[in-house]
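During the reporting period, we have paired protein sequences with backbone structure tokens. One record among many follows, to show the layout:
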Amino acid sequence: MVRQSLQRTLFASGITSPKLLGALNAETAEEPLERAYDPELVSDLVAQSVQQGNPLDGETIYQKLACNACHQIKGEGGMIGPDLSSIGSTLSAERMTEELLWPGRQIKEGFVPIEVHTKDNRILIGYERKTLERPGENEMILRNTVSAELMHIDRENIQTFRSLRSMMPENLTQALSEKQLADLIAYLAQLRGKS
């Protein structure tokens, strides 16, 4: 519970330091790890969201979890994660539920964070971008996860790079009851890109 609160605060502030998050995870190792994937739980939550989910309560939960620090809806919110304005028409309720409970299980294309260590001792984190004009042969282009600024890194200056897990904090929704999860799913499912 403490780790989740601190993670939400860090991500809401735009801090994505792997060292800081690693230290936080190490200091709170006594907290339960990510729950095991459970397709039956997914089915139950989807059914509950359709039958009893309250989108208005779900919107309140979305705000309390500070999801808008990382995700945009209708142009409002952060740019760390995917825009959710039309998530209800692009993802099934099952997939939304899986992404809420297990954010690292399937990461949306273009949102796999890359950590680059440069020869001049910089650590950069962003989403790799490839453009038609610049295929990336001599450089790597990363979109900064906080500012959306494009960072051009000369490949000769790259010491190492690796893919990271999802930027969405693990266990972000673990403290929610099944009713709260159903409400959050109902809220997201009704986002269909219309005004």
Summary: The domain at 113-163 is CATH 2.30.30 (SH3 type barrels.). The chain has a mean pLDDT of 85. The beta strands are 72-73, 76-77, 113-118, 123-129, 139-144, 150-154, 158-163. DSSP finds seven helices and seven strands in the chain.
